[in-house]
TrEMBL record:
Matches recorded under NCBIfam families: PPK2_rel_1
GO MF annotation list: phosphotransferase activity, phosphate group as acceptor
Stored PANTHER family: POLYPHOSPHATE:AMP PHOSPHOTRANSFERASE (PTHR34383:SF3), POLYPHOSPHATE:AMP PHOSPHOTRANSFERASE-RELATED (PTHR34383)
Polyphosphate kinase-2-related domain span: 30-246
Stored SUPFAM superfamilies: P-loop containing nucleoside triphosphate hydrolases
Official protein name in the record: PPK2 family polyphosphate:nucleotide phosphotransferase
Length: 280
């Protein structure tokens, strides 16, 4: 299982020691990887539909996929290429930007709780509550002791979610600073990508060591048994998309949603159609 390759070991985290361009747990190259993702699509679709059906039949379980990573690490790409393999009706994507004034007036988890997936849905967070211990820490938006409190609050929330039947799959998309530079340059080269370019991305890039340190602490402090972190090498987009897909598949398999029993008398309904007067 891919999880064994990507699951972050407990204890202190050194991101410079974890690869950004490897393909752990997958032997093939790019074309095999793209094929594998396509094949995964039908399996993901089937599992998602079962979960959705369960939710429509009184089930309360759901899945939350948390995507974190530096700018250009491919959070949006995973949504487009992996999450999009399943029926969009079963997906709830939330992208978290800087908090609004209203959001700032509440605890940092307020907006997160409001965005949690409904029963039967796969929720996807493109950035998440982790920004509140990453950018908030690096840019000094809150006091250090508030950051400390937040790690615990996050762990409590995630444990609560699992207890209610919503596993939280946390993926850190790990790119190298060189790869990010290439990707940012590409955005500047392409007029169709200019809208994505934000000068703040270069400011953030210049704080790479600070972000790395903040990530290392956040990953270590929130790498719990109930909601472990997966560090996904993300320099190769095809591998990143496949790896998150496999992790999501395995999370859904583990959840094991089954088709709900019909609450109608199937035979009686079949007879109604077979015996009906012609309809025109
Ligand atoms: P993007 O993902 O490129 O659309 O950018 C979203 C921006 O929102 C990033 O610059 C994040 O750092 C910022 N952001 C997200 N969550 C928070 C937060 N809780 N506090 C401050 N900034 C945030
Ligand atoms: Mg950005």
């Amino acid at each position: 299982m891919i999880a064994e390759h990507l699951r972050l070991s407990p204890g202190p985290v050194d991101l410079t020691a974890l690869p950004t361009d490897a393909t752990p747990g997958f032997d093939g190259g790019k074309s095999e990887g793209k094929e594998a993702l396509e094949e995964l699509g039908s399996e993901l679709s089937d599992l998602q539909e079962r979960l959705y059906a369960e939710g429509r039949s009184g089930g309360t379980r759901s899945v939350l996929l948390v995507l974190q990573g530096m700018d250009t690490s491919g959070k949006g790409g995973v949504v487009r290429h992996t999450v999009a393999l399943v029926d969009p009706q079963g997906i709830e994507v939330t992208a978290f930007g800087p908090p609004t004034e209203e959001e700032l007036a509440h605890d940092f988890l307020w907006r997160v709780r409001r965005a949690l997936p409904a029963p039967g849905r796969i929720g996807v967070f493109d950035r998440s509550h982790y920004e509140d211990v990453l950018v908030a820490k690096v840019r000094g938006l809150v006091e250090a002791d508030e950051v400390e409190r937040r790690y615990d609050a996050i762990n409590e929330l995630e444990a609560e979610l699992l207890a209610q039947g919503t596993p939280v799959l946390k993926c850190f998309l790990h790119i190298s600073p060189d790869e990010q530079r290439e990707r940012l340059l590409k955005r500047l080269d392409r007029p169709d990508k200019h809208w994505k370019f934000d000068p703040v991305d270069i400011d953030d890039r210049q704080l790479w060591p600070q972000y790395r340190a903040a990530y290392e602490t956040a990953l270590e402090r929130t790498n719990t048994e109930v909601a472990p972190w997966y560090v996904v090498p993300a320099d190769k987009k095809w591998y990143r998309n496949l790896a998150v897909g496999l992790l999501l598949r395995d999370t859904l398999v583990h959840l094991g949603p089954t088709w709900p029993d019909a609450d109608v008398d199937v035979e009686a309904q079949r007879r109604r159609l077979l015996d009906e007067e012609p309809v025109r």
